[in-house]
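Entry
Fold in token form

___
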Amino acid sequence: MRISTVDIQDYEDMMELWGICGLPYKPRGRDTRDKIRKEIQREPEYWKAFYEGDRMVAVAFGTDDGRKGWINRLAVHPEHRNRGLGTRLVSALEEEFYNKGIEIIGVLIEGDNPESMKFFEKLGYEDLDIRYYSKRKSMDS
């Protein structure tokens, strides 16, 4: 099992893994191959995955706004859960943020995902009971 930076060649595997894990994604909107490619090129250090051979079994990516880091779409294949892969991906992203001087890290978790809430609370993240508002250019964004 190895951790590595994600490459755009992993796009289909990542979409499949997100689907298996029940994560929402929009392959005709914000998650087109071209948009993901641009994000990976802009900040490759924020795209981390675990591979078993050539098979992606866990993935997460991060973003930052210059002062706060965000952990996005942590997905671990159900057959590989409870082995520390998610924790190691989060730690790898936290290290990338800290290396850039970013000391505040956030995670947005949908209300119907108590498993993720428990996972991040176990890692020391607090539920700040903040409402998230969004305005989107289109429904596919």
